Amino acid sequence: MCVGPLSCPLGKPVVQRDPFRCPVKYSQAKGKRYTDALGRSLFAVILAQKNQKNITSCLHNLRPDIGFVRTYSVECDVSGNTCGSMIGVSEEARAIYLGFGDTLVSEMVNGLGAQLGAWEKFEGQKAGVVSYFHNAFYKSFVDSGMKDDALELVKKYRGFRVWITGYSLGGSLASMTSLYLAKKKLVDPNTIRLVTFGEPRTGNVAFAKEIEEHIQFRYRVVKKNDFIASIPRSADPAASLLTATMYERQPLFYRYLVHYDNKMKKGDTFKICELSDDFGCRNTNFAYDLDDHRTYFHIDSDKFVEEGCPRDHLF
């Protein structure tokens, strides 16, 4: 129950006074909803980045409508790991694409472990993100020149939607990029479309709230028991022993989670969860599968690239 008195009698439904902790229905309107076809069309941008030798060739097989392409590669942590990203434009779809690729899973987990509990403020006094993501974001998006190039394209292609997507660590960079552009009013928030794949918990409760406040079109796509999309670990927000202070300080997802509780083959179903971190919809405490993280849409990305990015494997 999300309205009512300050407390409830023992054994009665708990009254929730914080609207953010209440279910929010997702839109099913055309142009505002997530579809499997949409997810696959955006994951094509992610897969193309796996082909570092020839991104444009792979992308042409998957999304021939995307013409202009510019790529970026920077060292995004102290271990020298590389973060790759790209910008693409489809005049046919009237869309600009900002895509952030993944990094080595083992290195990201080690980086998260080393900085667990270390937070950095992000574009405000309350919103905070994990230090590892904070550092990677500014190196990947701001220092690389990607931000300036993106803003030039936004000016050139006025009215185009700005699709921001990412996979794994790239999912965190995508959500931070969306909030950065919206809060600084560099891009009209109404044109921003955020869709991530296998995104970890990027920030604290305030960060999740700001994402929901500023980005209306936002979906986190997760495959079954993906381990990376379950860390850093967090307590169930609905737990009775979780104090308000503990809740505010812990990492938290923003809604909406799109959960494929299957192999993500063509025709497989998904459900959309209505709470920001919904353990009833997907219990992350039981999610430990790295294979699920590596095979979104039932594709082994390394093998996919070796085979020349065959379109019929994805679509």
Automatic annotation (TrEMBL):
It comes from the Eukaryota. GO terms for biological process: lipid metabolic process. SUPFAM superfamilies: alpha/beta-Hydrolases. Residues 119-233 form the Fungal lipase-type domain. It holds the Pfam family Lipase_3. PANTHER family: FUNGAL LIPASE-LIKE DOMAIN-CONTAINING PROTEIN (PTHR45908:SF15), PROTEIN CBG11750-RELATED (PTHR45908). This is Fungal lipase-type domain-containing protein.
